[in-house]
Structure formats: C-alpha cells, structure tokens
Automatic annotation (TrEMBL):
Keyword flag Signal: yes
GO molecular function: acid phosphatase activity; metal ion binding
Name the record gives this protein: Purple acid phosphatase
UniProt source species: Triparma strigata
Span of the signal peptide: 1-20
Domain Purple acid phosphatase N-terminal: residue ranges: 24-105
Domain Calcineurin-like phosphoesterase intervals: 115-347
Similarity comment: family membership: Belongs to the metallophosphoesterase superfamily. Purple acid phosphatase family.
Amino acid sequence: MSRSLAFVLLGIFTAHQVFGAGSPKGVHIAFAGVNSITISFYTTLDTGEDNLPWASIADKNFTGSTTKSKSRYHHDVIVSDLEPGEVYEYITGVGSASSEPFTFHMIDNKSTKFKTAFVGDMGVNNSQATIDLLTKNRDQYAWVHHVGDVSYADDFDVKIEPSSGDGYDDVYDLFQDELEKLAASTPYMVSPENHDVTCRVTSDLGCPEQQRNFSAFRERWRMPSIESGSSTVEHHNVWYSYRIGNAHFVSIDTESDFPNAPTKPSTKIGGGAGGGFGDQLGWLKNDLKEANEDESVDFIVAMGHRVFYSSSITDWPLLAVKHVKEAFEPIFHEYNVDLYVCGHKHFYERGKPSFEDKEAEGGTTQIINGAGGCNEGVQGEGKGKAHHLIAKGNYESTGYGELEVDGKEMTWRYILSESGSVDDEIVIKSRR
C-alpha cells in the first residue's frame, strides 16, 4: 500500500525560479525512534527566518529546524507516527522551494526478518560502483549504515581530492548529492571517525569553527542520539543506538571521548581537536546492559570505525589500536555483542570470534568493511600479528556488507561492487 503525498505549492513560480540555491539538495532520511523518520537536506542560500523547512507526506505536514555551518544551511524535519510496513511518498522543502517526490518503506520495528547493508570508508572517488549497486538494491535493504569516514572531504587539504570544486563543503555537497537516490529512499545511518573530525586531514589550521570538532558531520546528519538517551543535545549524533525487531544496533565513536582516544580537545596534529561530547563508555555500558538483559533481543550488533584486530598494524596515533581495543572490547564481551562491523582499513577482513587476542567461544566477531571506495584506494594485506584471527580477506576489490536477520539466525555476506557477487558468507546463530 502506498500513502500519497498531499501538498499544494503556493504561488505561481516554481521552486527554482523563486530560490535557485534555496531548493533542497542531498535529501536523505534516517531513523528517529520507533515509527519515526528524520528527513534532512541542505541548501546553499539563506531562505529567511520566516521560511521553515517542511515535509509533506500523506495527509500530514511537518515543520523542522535549520542550522548553519559556514555557507551551508542544514535542515531536519522529524516525521512521526508512521505506520509500520507502509510505503510513503513525500516531498520536502523550505518556503515554496520543494524537492522532487521520493518514497520510502517504513520498517516494522517488531519484525524479526529483515536485511540491511553496511558500507565503510566511502567518498566521492572510486565509489561509483558501490553507490550504484547499493542504489540498485535499495529495495532489498531496510537501511544502510556507513561505518565512518564519510565523504573524505578533508582530503581536499592534501590535494588528493580531484572532485572537490572549491573546497571542503563542495566535496561534502557532491557526496550527499551522489547518495540522494539511495539515501532519500533508504534510511542512511552514519558513524563518525578520523576523516570526519575537521576540514583538514592534517590539522585544524585554516579550518573555520563551523568545520572543526565533527561539526560538518553532526550538522549534515541527524542521528537518533536523543531518542536513544545518549544525549539531550540536538546534533550530538556521534554515538547512539536503535532497535529493529529482535536485534539491537549500537553505533560508537572510536575517535573521541574515551581514555587515550585518538582525537582529544587538545589534539593539534593528525586531524585536529575533537571530542568533549560526554561519557560515551558510561552510556554504552547502560545501553548494552539493557539490551543484553532483554529476552526479546536475539542479537547485538555494534558499528564503529577503528579496528581491534587486523593484518595491518600501521595506524595513527601509533597506539590507537591498543587504546580502542582496551576501551571497547571488554564492554562488548561483558554484554555479549555478537558482531562488530568497522572500517578504517581499506579492505575486507572477517575475523573469528575473539577476545583478548585469542579465538574465543562467545567472543565478538569483528568484520572490517572498509572498502566502499575512496581517494586512497583499496589497501593491500598487512604483515601484522593478527593473521591467526582472520578467517577471510579481500584486498583487491571494493564492496559492501549485507546482513540478513531471520529469526534466530543472522547471515553476513560481503558483496563485490563491480559484479554484485557474494565473496564471503557466514551464519551467526543466536546464543540467547
């Protein structure tokens, strides 16, 4: 069943005739709690305080909010009380400037059978095959989760970003524009990481305040931080959780706000200063404890960026892997996290269930899913000491992950972007 939009454009001019750059761009949606969706977009023109962002869907009209980040205006409209299983058609805009119609399927949060996709380390270059395949298959997926390094706009700083136009915001605009056919119809969830901290990959030098400390990431994406109790501040967005059916999903920030984090408010070199958003580990423990004790939860899946184990030991800062693992792995083990999907390394590696550098029954299965495609290319296999924990690797092709939940079984597949073929598959059974 489809719910038709009900909207009448006021005035005699078209949106582009009235506003031009005020028309919605980079339209994308995300989960905003049970039976709720956030519709987000940006404009490059100030449409005035009296022209609030809106969305029109079925017989309802919703009004949203606007924030400004340098020369961009970022708009969010939260649409609530939607019917599970319905297909909705919507348009969105500011004032009388409107988008084209889009549709999305409202997932049933009680469903125990669904399929989702995971992608990591994806920017505007070397990613077209991945974006095209995800877009082609979008009707199969209830949502997509991007596990950090979103757009690679900061690579403009080191001159390896050939698609940028004039600067950092142009790269990010292009990325969101290229995603629109996918992300306007399929909820697109994101986790932050090292390429998301500031406008320059090397430091904050030359970055305006609106492009520091994850600002572009937090303004351009509206994640359910408030709805999952990780913050009371709008545009927190750096860690949060959501529940779909019998699976609990938690998104963490492996870049800031834990002991010896790679990025701190005092960081000056290697991505700039960042963090200071709150007690991430305290929230994480409470969130996972509640999920682990809930008898209706069969699976717990965590998403982040930096890895615990990998064939590649090179990283910055030098002890980042050690500190990330020490902060998060014990919590995952204590609360029975089944699967950790991360990126950072630009290849695919599936680990064995592990804990404290050993294969372990009841350990968390780590999957490095960092080959979505970016300026820096696919990374070759490393020579580290974790090979005994790696069950499968691909160091040649771009791709993305697919996770299918069906009752008490969860199937992970790695899909090659160029061919659409399955390169790796594993079934994880519920241990609850």
